[in-house]
């Protein structure tokens, strides 16, 4: 066998298409890199521009800030007041309400499911008359800016699958997250920061064992340049941004230019979109060397602004710090910002840890909405607050052991709120029954929520698709209806 024959025998399919004399490789390369070439000719850096033809219609929101409360806040103790439950305190929840529903393994075999009304008191606030827990006075103060959706429901009963379902439309890891879909379709206005940024925080007591999995902000089968960039909670927000000792910024610039030429040659040969991602990410890292230090410098923030976010705002990695960072990222054109906060998993510490969670998240959440509004950014920024499901109206644990009270996971009816970005303010959409158990009016499924978010961004959720494994995939799978009742 000649060397030429040996080479032909080991030629891979990718090499065949990339090297084909009939132009298949060139056509594939042109298709894969079309967005990058458009960006280059427009003077914009790689990865800024979205797909041609998007947005599909005029958007109400340019960006999204998702304050995801990992662990699931108890809706009955926060926003969904059910005074009728007092009549049944300590009694078995009616079988007609329970209806054979499944729960987590922690209470699936519990012999008694005793009704536990709200552990807080509620009052009405604002012109809208929204009922809000006394543990959340700051959110209560912006009630007229909020749209409460009290009829959310999902299928997932455990944390990671439920969060994955909310963010990617699938309980199984591997699908693109909502932020990846948004940046893939719409690009980003920011030239010096990623289009999709993620920040995480947790309670100081580390009472919640929830893990922040990378697939919560992954790009799935989309090119990896659309995955979220996680900012760390201590030290440098992003690893390896600093130049090694002895390397100047000018030397690094030259190194990246030479590396880009090598990668471009490799890309032209193999037509692999991940090579284009590599080029874009090196370039973005270089730009972030200058943009991130400025982003994280709070010294120019007014004292009253810092005070508004609360006493924890200067502690890197706190929820308050991340909320202020979210506003600064929004100002700089970042498309999708996710702030996760873990600590809401109240299986046996509802009587103690719930109040701490409210204290840590209430003031920063309300401050973010106020801050955006004061700066004229709320009108085109969609803010979302909520968990992956709710928590049960019945008690987990012994009713006599007050310090160990808890609530189990509850997917059948719970509350989130949204503000700004085309959302109708000062309203409540949907309702649950007198036990906060089942949705009785205007149900909103997770896919409906996703369809609505994409609609507010100017995207038809049925038309933003990506072909993978022989079929067209989308965020909402084959489901989802826009919740018109929440639109301004």
Q: What oligomeric state do these chains adopt? A: single chain
Low-confidence stretches: 1-11, 16-47
Total tally of structural domains: 2
Q: Estimate the helix proportion, in percent.
A: 25-40%
Structure description:
A hairpin with a 4-residue loop joins strand 2 and strand 3. By secondary structure, the protein is an alpha/beta fold. It has 2 domains: 357 residues, 3-Layer(aba) Sandwich (Alkaline Phosphatase, subunit A), CATH 3.40.720; 54 residues. It is built from 15 helices and 17 strands. Helix 2 packs across helix 3, helix 10 packs antiparallel against helix 11 and helix 13 runs parallel beside helix 14. Helices cover 34% and strands 15% of the residues.
Short précis:
The protein is α/β, with parallel strands linked by helices.
Summarize the topology:
Elements: H1 3-9, H2 13-19, H3 24-32, H4 34-42, E1 63-70, H5 95-98, H6 105-108, E2 122-125, E3 130-133, H7 137-141, E4 146-153, H8 159-168, H9 178-186, E5 196-202, E6 229-231, H10 249-270, H11 273-295, H12 303-309, H13 319-331, E7 336-342, H14 350-374, E8 381-386, E9 390-391, E10 409-410, E11 414-419, E12 427-429, E13 431-432, E14 439-441, E15 444-445, H15 446-456, E16 466-468, E17 471-473
Parallel strand pairs: 1-7, 1-8, 4-12, 4-15, 5-6, 5-7
Antiparallel strand pairs: 2-3, 4-11, 8-11, 9-10, 13-14, 16-17
